[in-house]
Amino acid sequence: MDALIGWIGGKRLLRKVIAPYVPKDIKGYIEPFGGAAWMLLYKDKWGDLEVYNDLDNRLVNLFLQVKYHPDELIKELDWLVASRKLFGDILKQEGLTEIQRAARFMYLITRSFGSKGDSFGTSQKRGTSSMYNRLERIKELHKRLDMVIIENLSYEKVIDKYDTKSNFFYCDPPYMLGYTYENSKQFSHEELCAKLKKLKGRFILSYDDNPEVLKLYKGFDIKHVTRTKGINRKEGKSEFNEVIIANFDLIDINQNSEAPKTKAKGTREIRGIS
Predict the structure, then answer these.
(1) Segment 41-67, tens digit of pLDDT
(2) pTM for the full model?
(3) Is residue 122 located within the same domain as residue 246?
């Protein structure tokens, strides 16, 4: 299933690479940095327990309204036409209900350039994006979220709450060198690393590929990934290097074998994700 909205750092492309490495024997699947939930939505069910969490209350509110009030959310979105003036008016609105907040947040993200929610986005070739398919997707997502627990906590509290040997955590924190958004400005990568080193369960962590990340997670199993850039594409550079890090051996459950090793001990490489 596709995500309902675009999101900075979304894992639309990388989830195809990560999914085969998620262990089959997990009881619970937890995302401390849920974002648009691309990984969560890749399968109909990951485990008996599924937890979506994000610190951004706008995201969490949207998922809550999809789960509990999908019809009301669709009605609220139905009259929000593609308009630069309406976009600007919505940016200024206050005193809204939770359903209205969710609808307007989704509208701003969908209608904005790069899914950043701050400027009305259009294309000379395609105009603006269609909302109709997304309204249909709300109905699908409503069913998918039926048994999913939705949290609005810090990643530390979510880990403390759900950490057991049988649970699995997919962590997609703010990247060290990536786009900086409000909740990531004071983020401590060192504190996250210290937290994950004490984890009872298993985790997979996605990050930008840079020396500081590799230094922090020295000794963990690391896979290097090269993919086509999306929102943060810079002129003249079409590829982006990322790493997948785990506290267990990264073995592809579909192939039942490890990917070929590269130069550095404990690291593996795949290319051409698009």
Answers:
(1) 999 999 999 999 999 999 999 999 999
(2) 0.82
(3) no
Token digits of residue 48:
């008996």
What is the domain range of residue 236? 15-55+153-273
Structure tokens at 214: 């590799």
269: β partners:
224
Q: In the Cβ-directed half-sphere of 54, how many Cα atoms lie within 13 Å?
A: 20
Round the average pLDDT of the chain to a whole number and report it. 81
Nearest to 65, CA basis, from 116, 138, 131, 152: 138
Report the C-alpha gap between 203 and 223 in whole angstroms: 14
In the numeric block, which tokens belong to residue 149? Answer: 């627990």
d(CA 95, CA 101): 9
Q: Rounded to the nearest 5 degrees, what angle is found at the Cα of 78, between the Cα atoms of 73 and 84? A: 115
DSSP H helices, 42-164, are 57-68, 70-78, 84-92, 98-111, 132-144, 155-162
Q: Give yes or no: residues 28 and 94 share one domain.
A: no
**pLDDT tens digit sequence for 195-232:** 999 999 999 999 999 999 999 999 999 999 987 665 54
